[in-house]
Amino acid sequence: GLAAQNSGEKIEIYLFSGAEIIEVEEGQVPRRCLTDGYRYNPREKNPQSRWQPIADLDAPVVAAPVSALGPSHILVFSGTDCTLDDQFWTLKDDNPGIPTAIRSYHTITNTWINIGDMPGGKGVVTSKALPWQDEVVIISGEDRPAHRTPKVWQVNLESNISAFGLINYGIVGIYFLLLILMGFYLSGREKTTHDFFLAGNRIPWWAAGLSIFGTQLSALTFMALPAKVYSTDWTYYLGAIGIVLITPLVIYYFLPFFRRLNITTAYEYLELRFNLVIRLIGSFNFVLLQIGRMAIVLYLPAVALSLVTGIDMYLSILTMGVLSTLYTVLGGIEAVIWTDVIQVAVLLGGALLSLAIVLWQLDADTADLVGSAWDQRKLHIVNWSSDYTTTAVWVVLVGNMVTSLVSYTTDQSVIQRYLTTSSEKQAAKALWTNALITPISGLIFYGLGTSLFLFYQSHPQLLKPDLQTDAILPLFVVQQLPIGISGLVIAALFAAAMSTLDSGMNSISATVTTDFRRWSNDAYGERINLKLAKWITVAAGAIATVSAILLATFSIQSVWDMIFILSGLVTGGLGGIFILGIFTRKANGPGVLVGLICSALVMYLVQQFTQIHFFLYTAIGLIVCVVVGYTASLILPSSNDQLQGLTIYSKLDKLEE
Hints:
Elements: E1 2-6, E2 11-16, E3 19-21, E4 31-33, E5 37-40, E6 51-54, E7 66-69, E8 73-77, H1 88-91, E9 101-106, E10 111-117, E11 129-132, E12 135-139, E13 142-144, E14 147-148, E15 152-156, H2 166-186, H3 193-198, H4 205-216, H5 219-231, H6 238-260, H7 267-273, H8 276-309, H9 313-362, H10 366-375, H11 393-410, H12 412-418, H13 424-458, H14 472-480, H15 485-517, H16 526-554, H17 557-583, H18 589-609, H19 617-635
Helix pairs in contact: 2-9, 2-15, 4-9, 4-12, 4-13, 4-15, 5-13, 5-15, 6-11, 6-13, 7-8, 8-9, 8-15, 8-16, 8-17, 9-13, 9-15, 9-16, 11-17, 11-19, 12-15, 14-15, 15-16, 17-18, 17-19, 18-19
């Protein structure tokens, strides 16, 4: 059999069974049927490593129809096992036919299982198995030696959906009710836009730190991170270390400007340092990226939950979108942060609980589990290579450090948390809280991913061939967790999505109200500004929710891919602008604009025409913007010479303890 399928990391070619031609006595079939298998990676640079063995079959399946199914399964329909080869010439038309067993191979866990039999008690060989919509079609073929059948088989392998249950729905409902009550409780404090966007600077440092963590950890991460480790290894874990390494830079070189200039959005600094155009470019890019991100964060978890639990996809999208909008409008950033605290607790608690139950289900010594994972390179973490197209250690570490630096210094949804604490010192503590939680939580999620691999390797019959790999954690939750506990973990999944949604809505409102409206007309009263901020929050939530519904209905993912691509072209450049503003005196508005444009062009060329690993995209964009922007600033004139308090050479005096 021969098929192409994803190995969990890349598309590879899988070859198994077949027959070896041998010399035999007259009257015998000249072949030896095989049960071994191999996978072939054409991109492997070392020719001797391109072929790797896979698990053997329990019997030969010579000339079997084969089809890839879903993200990581290969189906093998019947196939000759060669047990009657020595009777080939004597049986003739009395040959009982081809074996009927249907086998499934899972590329990630490297396991074979029997999943059923061909209909009608007849197998078939020398035919093609063709995927068609959600089914597989087999046209004609030999149902016994030297006899072709006109039959066409249509195989439906649709997975059964587990019922979620009233108790689980009740737990999720109680969780949602708690979030709404939180919004109502805090609604009385929102008297001004300063309260609505910055919580009156009354947020404790630990709550702000947990909120930063919750904002960065979306539902996609909650599902995708364990799924990534389940299908590959621990190579990406070094990215969590990168956040720890960049935190001192953020605290000592960027935080003082955000705190001491009395600003609401990060992009206000860009106008003070450069000009209004640069400020609006930064603001517009943030709003565009957040709308796209919010839609995806609503859509993808809803799809996974509908496939695994049967919860209606549209109901999930509407519930998350409407409830997040409601408590964010009622309580502003204060409600966002305190609900984030609850959501982080539920999220990490759900992940820890899932990890504990997976390990309990495996029922083996920890040393044996670690040894099994180690032997299969599932704990591999460092790739010592100079290759910039792979996840080499320097690519993962440098790429994630720069990406995190840009995120923590240009993303309004993160920076806004710095401004909600009572002092710069408290904001620094919030950043360190996030930095310390990130690698610890990484151990939980990475350990969960490895444990899921070991569990489903031991129980491959529980896998659903048509289910996306990113849904492996929700699948385990509904299959193995007790009623009530599974509801709590699904609530954690909702929590991860909603912590991203509420942050995005409030930050978009702050950006639009502060950057796009007040500069044009600041004559309106505070009461009207607050009302406008709330309506913008509603609009942001509505746009994200409707966009997610459109994604679910019309399959327009390519539109959102384009949004992310276009926005991603300038993300690294935006980080470069902040670096030019803070660390240089010569950089000016026209120069950094040229740098940003050149950075976007270079990023487009890198994405389209090179194989550079995507981890390095932000770093490349940042470097190009800094080099070109500084050079252009030396050539282009600028009238902005008021730099007092706007660079590291003239920081404002420390105003707070």
